Amino acid sequence: IRKNPSEYEFHQAVKEVLESLRPVVEANEEKFRREALLERLVEPDRQILFKVPWVDDKGNVQVNTGYRIQFNNAIGPYKGGLRLHPSVNKGIIKFLGFEQIFKNSLTGLPIGGGKGGSDFDPKGKSDREVLAFCKSFMTELCKYIGADTDVPAGDIGTGAREIGYLYGQYKKIKGTCEGVLTGKGLTYGGSLVRTEATGFGLVYLTEEMLKAHGHSIAGKTVAVSGAGNVAIYAAAKAMELGAKVVTVSDSNGWIYDKAGIDVKALKEIKEVRRERLTEYLKFRPEAEYHEGQGVWQVKCDIALPCATQNELLLEDAKALAENGCIAVAEGANMPTDLEATKYLQDKGILFAPGKAANAGGVATSALEMSQNSERLSWTFEEVDEKLKGIMKNIFFNMSDAAKEYGAEGNYVLGANIAGFLKVADAMMAQGIW
Ligand code: NDP
């Protein structure tokens, strides 16, 4: 905290991981201390901050800050998304990069952890303004990334349009068609299922967790927060498997549709028209729109927070428990704060942490990298099958680790330990760096 003041989200993420690692650290105390393993783990390999000047539609110059935190490449090239949101600062990018190390390790694929982004807000900007920003951002970022070095992807505010503009500028400068970004369009090296992967993967893992405890998602009522990439495809897959999703939200308000969210309408509003959720009522006049936050007050069996960090707090956890919720699985990164997580676990509510539950996105990104390297495209079914297999493995790995360390059913501890062990082994095998 003294070394990195004001990086609250980063401190929160580190605290959660280090608390989980206690049994592993205690069993290897001398070795870890001698190697300064934890000190090396919490210090990013490289922190790149840069100026992003661009010209808006009125002819004025705007200046944003760009970030790329290359956290740890012990098991493979740095990999993690680019977040474009006005709230972005170094602490947020560091928390996301730190989480990414363990998430990527859990996928079983050879990818290290990194994250980046900018305080640029694509909302309300014209396509030309977004293009101007992306060109300027990539002009600097291209010096530090590469298909075998660091492979950024999408995140909040960075969707297909932004990835396309960023890739175009990378190619213009470097002159190479390489898999330097994932989440690319299907006509220029993207992978089928990448768009759906995080939401689908979240539901696959949730189903696996429910199965292990004698439940199934079919017939359950599900509350989803967010209305972006993760939320849309989590809702779509949950409905496909027979659940009823009754909520979605954005930063202004939330929808309650007791008949079940109309995913087609949601996609039209968010992916095609890029409009606000208030528009949903035009498609479904019988649904309710409420200003502010409130999805966790709704009666549900399963909660899938898919919006942003720290959106599910103690009061929300209490409401979920009172309403009989049996499982929470995080589609977003760190949406549940430490207090709420502990409360849910103490109440016996199944809890799947984001670094396991939302790993389907980055796993499919790694599959995109493999397809780019072999210059082939796999079918939707092939990629979806691989994604299902990966999510199943993640569940069993975190479940086994929790059992082995005497905390059966504590998937936070299990995911942190399982993710850490592989990275720690790779770090120690490669000497001091
Ligand atoms: P999007 O930008 O597509 O969507 C984010 C959604 O969350 C939007 O509907 C946004 O509303 C809403 N939101 C943002 N802030 C708040 C808030 N404070 N309160 C309520 N709603 C809010 O992002 P993604 O769906 O890609 O990402 C969502 C989360 O999932 C993030 O935590 C991200 O890091 C994580 N994630 C994403 C992956 C991916 O593949 N996309 C992979 C793994 C994790 P509004 O439009 O009003 O801002």
Descriptive overview:
The chain has 433 residues and is of the alpha/beta class. It contains 16 helices and 12 strands. The strands form 2 sheets. The protein has a 7-stranded mixed sheet, with helices on both faces. The chain has a 5-stranded mixed sheet with strand order 1-2-4-3-5. The chain is globular. The two termini are 23 Å apart. The mean pLDDT is 97. Bound molecules: NADPH dihydro-nicotinamide-adenine-dinucleotide phosphate (NDP). The site of NADPH dihydro-nicotinamide-adenine-dinucleotide phosphate has 24 residues, from helix 8.
Question: Keyphrases for this structure?
Answer:
binds NADPH dihydro-nicotinamide-adenine-dinucleotide phosphate, 47% helix, 12 strands, 433 residues, single chain, alpha/beta, 5-stranded mixed sheet, 16 helices, 7-stranded mixed sheet
What would you say about this model in short?
The chain is of the alpha/beta class and 433 residues long. The chain contains 16 helices and twelve strands.
SSE diagram, text form:
Elements: H1 8-27, H2 29-35, H3 37-42, E1 46-55, E2 61-72, E3 78-84, H4 90-106, E4 112-118, H5 127-141, E5 150-153, H6 160-174, H7 194-212, E6 221-225, H8 229-240, E7 244-249, E8 253-256, H9 263-272, H10 280-283, E9 288-291, E10 302-305, H11 314-322, E11 327-329, H12 338-346, E12 350-352, H13 354-357, H14 360-373, H15 380-404, H16 411-429
Helix pairs in contact: 1-4, 1-16, 4-16, 5-6, 7-8, 7-14, 7-15, 11-12, 14-15, 15-16
Bound molecules: NADPH dihydro-nicotinamide-adenine-dinucleotide phosphate.
